[in-house]
Fold this sequence. Notes:
By secondary structure, the chain is mainly beta.
Amino acid sequence: MARPRSKQAVIRIPAPVGGINLTTAVDKLQPHEAQRLRGFEFDEYGVIGMPRAELSLGTIVAGTKILSAYIFQRSGGATQLIVHLDDGSLRYSTNFLTAAGGGDPATWTSIATGLSTTAPFTYATFIDKVWMTNGTNDFRSWDGAASATFASAPKGLFLAVWRDTVWMGNGGTAAAHRIYQCSPGDPTVWPALTFVDVEKGVGFGISGIYAVESALIVFKAYRTHIIFDPVEYTNRVIDQSKGCLSHYSIVAHNGVVYFVSHLGICRFLGDGPSQIISEKISPFFDDLFTFGTSLATQVMDLSKETHICGYSFENFVGWYLPTNVSTTHVKFFPDLPDQPWIFGQPQQSASTNRQFTLAVRELGKYQHLYNISGSPAVLNRQYGNTATTTVTCEWGSAWFDFDSPLEEKYISMIQVLHRGQITVEIRKDYDQTFIANVATALDHGDTELRESTIYTDFYARAIQLVVYSVAGAERQSVLGTGAGALALVSRFSAAVSKVEVSAKVLGQFRR
């Protein structure tokens, strides 16, 4: 007599510490990877956390967009946030660190007007001044109170400080491959013969420069060079297939330099070709991936390559990548074992506007993160809102078939270890439609990780877990007792650690 065989099975779905993976087939993802991962970050316990929402500190100037921004710190003066806007103005704020938003916005003071409305400045701090160039306006300095211009200086696009000297790259059409050097210790003087043309006439000109201890890195769009002698200007090509698309994409994090190339995001390795580290999000850079049916429309909008902007904050590095429909925010966590990627919360849907994110750490204080985006440009303090206000987050796990891909399973229970309020939904059999009666909002009202149980009643061959943020109870750790107790509140308002799914695997009927 035929009878069904069945067995109990439990799968444990860990937090997606492997990050998002866009290159592997959905049924081949590792359990700790994600098909979709947006808005989350990794919190101080190594689980995915839902960060607090940003806090608006007000519009900078009505009707303007941001071209570039810079944090200016020097001895004996307040930290300033400098912005260059598309109305041709250069402005600064000192109260951006303390402004509370709403009726207490950041206030702005003019440095200069009548500047370029399209060419963004690049900046470098040297001898307690910030130096600025954009290839159009005169080279200029700002000491926090007064500005000066230097008409005799070259008009380059990029700046870096190396070996007690300011260096300038790309002097325009006639000098696109040129690197200039100021007099040692004096950026007001640029001798006529202190320059070098780096592989002149090869490629599209210099696209960015950056100083490391032993060399000045000189990027072109598709090649990378280094200058390793500041006197003789001795230089060589170290990467013939990868360059840098945007000077603003170059980021240093924990002693490692990262940048965005046309092949992906790269780690600079020194005297040799750079390493591509963005394989798991490679569709953003692959010519084979397009939007819709147009084979001429790739994902990345390379016509806006100078809009690419990177930053470093605490345990991750982030970039804004302009695509053909929006601006995508990606985050890389190089200090975690699996070095995962996550899609961050986009500050705007259009790719037509630049945006800048900057980290600032005051002396003897903690690090804070600010973003400038939108039209008009608005200054936001990241993680600045109340602990119960979260950004929109989504985690779509790998697909799980209980090691029996062709057999039906009866799914009976889902247990979630989490804190704060979340919504858990289930997809089955590689279908993007949710199972309606499994969508459950969980809130155990506790600030610590606790377990919630969902009792289910459905059949499937394979399932995918989808977790959304709803709101959050603030995460607190209490140190000490009595009047001396200290409550520590995290910037993460909700989190998910792991999930267990209980099922019965149903066998085939014997004849």
